[in-house]
Amino acid sequence: MDSRIIEAAERRYVVGMEWAMSTTHQEQAPSRKDIRTLMASMSEAADLWTTFRTTGPAVYYQVGVGLPFEQKVKGKLYAAAASLATARPESASYIFCLGEDLWWGVVVASGILVPSTDAASGDGGDIVASSREELNHRMPFASLDASAENYEYTDPEEALGFLEGVFTEAGKTARIHSLTQERRVRRHLTVGLALSVAALMGVGGLSYWHHERMVARRQARLAAQRAAAARARRLHKKHRIKKVSALVDAEKQYEQNVTRPWEVAFKPGELVHLCRQAYWQTYVVSQGGWEQNQWQCSAKGVRSVWNVLPGGTIATAPKGKINSSYTQDKTQAKLPGQAKPGGWDSVAKLDQAKRPWVIRSQTEHGLGIQIVFGNDSSHVLHWPKQIKQAAKKLGQSLPANKVLWHEVAVTVHTTVPPWDYTRLWDKPGFVIRNIRTARGKGWTITGVQYGY
Predict the structure, then answer these.
(1) What would the pLDDT profile of 180-192 be if each residue is shown by its tens digit?
(2) Which residue of 149, 218, 354, 411 pairs with 372 in a disulfide if CB–CB is 3.0 to 4.6 A?
(3) Residue 81 and residue 133 in one domain
């Protein structure tokens, strides 16, 4: 057993663990006592452990065991094999090259991790041979699906890309615990409790002596408090003036610091350019028996909806989220490059900003462009709790229903992509929220026009 740590899907996973079926009832999670007993029988040096509820036709619990790492590991760890079996319970063997000195292999049997197959090594030949042998020789005894396959990912980037999707789909499955760390926590609690008891005993012995001293000091404290109260009354008026002035400054600063949406968003031309690049990189009519029916792009990235065609299967589906009926797949992708939103420096009054849209909607009507407006709305300033409480204490009233800006939703329907109308979009204060198209239905661009 050679346990290693890999990083994928913004989490850390352990590969190279030993797995065994729980000795308890198949649908009952094993207790800590059962886990420690099973660990001792598997390896005297075992320190890492986790449990895994299988996802195959029958429900079982498996216990995973690993050796301790030489250096102390901070943060949470998860079992890579359990996450793979959760997302891909079909019977198969997997071989991954995760770098120059790290190969990982594992065999899944109807959602169950086959013992002794979760192996990590610096030699890819050993992993390939052992994984194929386990799949070919254990299948008859484990009653596995006869269509089980060998999956080999010898390219590290391809392997990590596959695992990224699998681990993201599986979520936080099979978190790994450490016996050494658990003992250390119990030891610290015991020492803390002992120190607390000793402190209480010391306090009880000194309480009487402190009582006598406190009585004498109380009289002096009361006299000092009366003198302090008199000084506080004299200073109260002066401090109140300062607090009212500070409140007014805080109101102005908060209003100035309110984030304006048009200042932190992509300009329409910027987003249209990025979406154009993303379109040529991500849009295809069909792939592996799946047809791309919807495509949409926003500042958050690209999303596509695929429908299965006759002859297509989930095995050839794009790497995304398939629905429960296995007929639709949804994929996501990031925008190309590392561009940051430029934003608009200023906006005009809403009536002035809306006027070019109205003119364009009247001149382009019937020429392939349809512009639809939503209802005008206003963004009202909401004061934070801290400023409200400060004003209430001072007996001051805050400006109510103060409008910071106005906005109107703008929806544009076209028969051609938006990058064919580059001059249509760059209107100060206009922000595109979404660009989408569906097969045979043209293009729809939704956005918001901001103004004062």
Answers:
(1) 887 777 777 766 6
(2) 411
(3) yes
